[in-house]
Amino acid sequence: MKKIEALLFAIFIAGSLYAQDISDSERLSKMEYMKYAAKINCDSTSGSNLEHRICLNLEFQKLDALLNEKFKALLQMVAKDSLRNELVEFQMAWVNNRRLQSEIVAEGSRGHMLGIIYLAAMVHTTQKRIEEIEFYIKRE
To answer: Residues near 8 by Cβ (< 8 Å), separated by ≥ 6?
Structure first.
């Protein structure tokens, strides 16, 4: 039984070495309101809540993709398998924490404001994580 668990863990870690968990980005990109994204110019909006929500969602997706690239670069720089495995585990926990923090911040909000506050927190937290990872990459 332990051999099977070890094998499954190794397969999971090997797959994870090339990317972080992008399920938030995938989930948010499929939100019903995103069907209007092609009609929105985020550089010039009327200021509506729907436009704000769409633009935050697009910004989050862009930042999450950048975070994924930075995380992959960091993993490639780490020589020790055990340290890479710990980084992958930490990143998975960080993604869950990002989601939880955003839910806490948005708690009590309704409608578009719930989405705006949640997405703004996701954007902010992701930007901070990118900065952290860039710091680690520069130190190598």
So the answer is: none
46-80: per-residue pLDDT in tens? 989 999 999 999 999 999 999 999 999 999 999 99
Which of the four pLDDT bands, split at 50, 70 and 90, describes residue 21? Answer: confident
The structure tokens 């578009």 sit at 112
Contact 47, 60 (CB under 8 A): no
Q: What count of other Cβ atoms lies within 10 Å of the Cβ of residue 131?
A: 10
In the chain, where are the structural domains located?
A: 2-139
CB within 8 A of 130, min separation 6: which ones?
Answer: 63, 66, 67, 70
Burial 47-72 (b: 16+ CB within 10 A, else e): eeeebbbbbbbbbbbebbeebbebbe
